[in-house]
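Thread amino acids onto this structure.
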């Protein structure tokens, strides 16, 4: 390897021609420029991961291949290998010569190599393996690795094996062989071309980056425009939303105002209707008072008492009855007079005269009979008219009482309860409650409001008992939903001494008023009414938690506008336990049975039992009550204690001794009906059917005798 030192460094570069020194200087500038251009290197390193347009390989891969090729040089002949080693970042200086000469010894060549040079790692005067300088990529021509170039010593230019038969030419010291000059020229051209390619690639990358930047700026501009438009749209939508909210609020306020106006209008209309009905009812009372009579107050000593004074209709009826009686008396007197003219037996009288007297008597007798029959018909007519007037009188008295109670009620000024129920007219009063017809301004329907009031004079214990009693009634009633049961709609508190239950309104009368107005009903009608009652009771006795009404009577059976039966008033109701029996304490029983007029008439004997243990009740209590009601509908009287008050019934023990029921001769009823009444009024509760059994009775199901 002395030839490399002599040609490259010998004498500090003396003895070389100017052209050689120029080439060496160019090589020195080339490597210095490549090693010192940091900005270019940084740009190239940024592109190391991208394939170059001219070679199709990445700069990073080329650099790795160059380093691998340099590290793979064999360790033998160090001097010879050092002559061909490439250091891309800095120029290696000779031990005693000029850097230019040393760099000149490392000529850069990228000219095509022969097959032998591709596989020869390096020999004296030869170049290293091609894999040391190039990175091969399939389908892409080889290109120089980044930062490297084939380096040749000045005195070690490879000689082709086939050029001169392997002969090495000798040259004077310090001279450059022609082959080296040609190689250096080719290397210079190749480096220039590579540099141009890299510059073109960089320009292309720069242009691409600029295009990308321009596109990014355009996209950013578009996004800013879109963002501004979106912001403007958001502001518009926000303004529209705010306007919509304002419109909605305004519309809601308008709707609320309309609802208030509508409610106020409905309330005003309901009050107007109520006042009109009150005026009409009072006018009718006044007219009926003149015709039927009225209640007046008379003083008897120091006592003031109410007495009934008959009206014109009763006075006329009494006059007619008196006239009929006078006519009957006159007819009897005439008959007696004619009969007195007859000759006595054995009296001496002319035969012709006797025949004339007897003929006159016969004619008078026939006339008397006709007259008496006519007077009898008139008397019967007067009796029927009197019965009708008595029924009208009874209804008139009830209306008088209702009006009097309405006038004394604290709710008679049409208050609005619960913000929805405007009270109209009182329907009735019983015990400690008042029932008003009301109008629901929300649902636009008529309802019945039952107002439960506490007496301020009561003790706290009695108030608690009453509230508990009323709460139990509501708790039981609100669970019932059946066509034959009055529906409970609402419950709310009015004040600390009053609460209200809202019920379905039945515009028809109750059974008690109907019986008083028209008397007994036909068996067919009575059977239909009781069948509906049993349907409601059977529903109340279905399921795990059943209900005993305990206070069934004609006054608690209502009719709606279509004539359907509705059971009401669950104030005394009891819930049955799982065994079907409810224990009734003595105190509770007395309190319950004392509620409502006429209750004792409809209670069975076991409710009046006294003893150390309280009586046991079941649905058979309601069965007994239904038997009494059916009997009353058919015969217009109660089977037990009809002419007694409830106090007399209680003290006389009438019901406790009611062991057998008797039927009047008229009106006629079927044997099946009588047998059903007997089953319902069985004295021993063990012999009496319960509600479900009675409801399935053939008489109630309209089954023919003998059919299942």
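Threaded sequence (708 positions):
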């Amino acid at each position: 390897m002395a030839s490399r030192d002599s040609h490259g460094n010998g004498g500090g570069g003396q003895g070389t021609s100017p052209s050689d020194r120029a080439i060496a200087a160019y090589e020195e500038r080339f490597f210095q420029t490549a090693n010192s251009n940091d900005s270019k290197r940084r740009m190239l390193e940024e592109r190391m991961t991208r394939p170059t347009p001219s070679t199709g390989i990445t700069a990073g891969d080329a650099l790795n291949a160059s380093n691998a090729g340099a590290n793979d040089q064999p360790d033998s002949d160090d001097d010879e290998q050092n002559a061909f080693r490439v250091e891309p970042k800095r120029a290696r200086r000779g031990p005693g010569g000029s850097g230019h000469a040393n760099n000149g010894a490392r000529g850069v060549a990228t000219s095509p190599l022969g097959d032998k040079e591709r596989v020869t790692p390096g020999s004296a005067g030869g170049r290293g393996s091609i894999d040391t300088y190039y990175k091969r990529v399939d389908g892409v021509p080889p290109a120089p690795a980044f930062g490297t170039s084939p380096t040749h010593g000045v005195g070690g230019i490879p000689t082709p094996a086939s050029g001169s038969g392997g002969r090495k030419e000798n040259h004077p010291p310090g001279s450059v062989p022609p082959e080296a000059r040609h190689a250096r020229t080719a290397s210079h051209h190749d480096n220039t071309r590579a540099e141009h390619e890299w510059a073109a690639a960089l320009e292309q990358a720069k242009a691409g980056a600029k295009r990308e930047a321009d596109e990014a700026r355009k996209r950013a501009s578009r996004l800013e425009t879109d963002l501004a438009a979106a912001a403007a749209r958001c502001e518009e939508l926000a303004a529209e939303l705010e306007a919509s909210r304002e419109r909605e609020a305004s519309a809601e306020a308008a709707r609320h105002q309309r609802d208030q106006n509508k409610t106020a209008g409905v309330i005003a209309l309901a009050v107007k209707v109520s006042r009109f009905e009150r005026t009409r009812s009072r006018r009718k009372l006044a007219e009926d008072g003149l015709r039927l009579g009225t209640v007046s107050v008379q003083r008897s000593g120091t006592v003031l008492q109410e007495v009934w004074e008959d009206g014109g209709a009763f006075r006329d009826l009494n006059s007619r009855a008196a006239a009929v009686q006078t006519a009957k008396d006159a007819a009897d007197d005439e008959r007696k007079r004619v009969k007195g003219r007859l000759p006595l037996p054995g009296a001496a009288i002319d035969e012709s005269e006797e025949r004339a007297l007897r003929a006159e008597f016969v004619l008078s007798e026939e006339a008397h009979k006709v007259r008496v029959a006519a007077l009898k018909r008139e008397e019967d007519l007067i009796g029927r008219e009197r019965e009708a007037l008595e029924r009208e009188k009874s209804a008139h008295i009830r209306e008088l009482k209702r009006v009097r109670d309405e006038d004394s009620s604290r709710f008679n000024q049409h208050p609005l309860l619960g913000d929805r129920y405007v009270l109209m007219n009182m329907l009735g009063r019983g015990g400690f409650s008042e029932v008003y017809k009301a109008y629901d301004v929300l649902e636009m329907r008529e309802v019945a409001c039952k107002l439960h009031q506490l007496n301020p004079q009561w003790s706290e214990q009695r108030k608690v008992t009453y509230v508990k009693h009323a709460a139990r009634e509501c708790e039981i009633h609100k669970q019932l939903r059946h066509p034959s049961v009055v529906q409970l709609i609402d419950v709310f508190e009015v004040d600390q001494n009053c609460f209200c239950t809202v019920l379905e309104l039945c515009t028809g009368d109750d059974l008690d008023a109907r019986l008083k107005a028209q008397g007994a009903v036909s068996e067919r009608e009575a059977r239909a009414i009781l069948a509906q009652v049993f349907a409601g009771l059977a529903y109340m006795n279905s399921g795990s938690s059943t209900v005993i009404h305990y206070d069934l009577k004609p006054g608690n059976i209502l009719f709606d506008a279509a004539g359907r039966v509705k059971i009401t008033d669950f104030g005394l109701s009891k819930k049955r336990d799982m065994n079907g029996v409810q224990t009734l304490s003595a105190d509770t029983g007395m309190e319950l049975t004392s509620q409502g007029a006429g209750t004792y008439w409809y209670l069975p004997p076991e409710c009046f039992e006294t003893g150390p243990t309280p009586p046991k009740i079941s649905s058979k209590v309601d069965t007994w009550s239904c038997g009494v009601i059916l009997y009353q509908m058919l015969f217009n009287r109660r089977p037990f204690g009809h002419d007694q008050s409830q106090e007399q019934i209680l003290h006389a023990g009438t019901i406790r001794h009611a062991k057998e029921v008797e039927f009047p001769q008229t009106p006629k009823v079927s044997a099946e009906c009588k047998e059903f009444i007997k089953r319902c009024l069985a004295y021993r509760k063990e012999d009496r059917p319960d509600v479900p059994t009675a409801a399935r009775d053939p008489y109630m199901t309209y089954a023919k005798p003998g059919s299942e």
